[in-house]
Amino acid sequence: MPKENKKTPFLIAISYLAAFIFIRVMVILAGSANSEIAQIVKGGSTLTHFHIGRNIILFGYHIHHFYFGILLIGIAGWLAIAGAVEISKEKLALVYGAGLGLLMDEIGLLLTWGNYASSLSYLLGVFLLGLILSIIYFPRFWRSIHHGISWVKYPLTLVNRFSEMVINLVDRVIGTNGSDE
Question: What is the pTM of this model?
Answer without folding.
Answer: 0.70
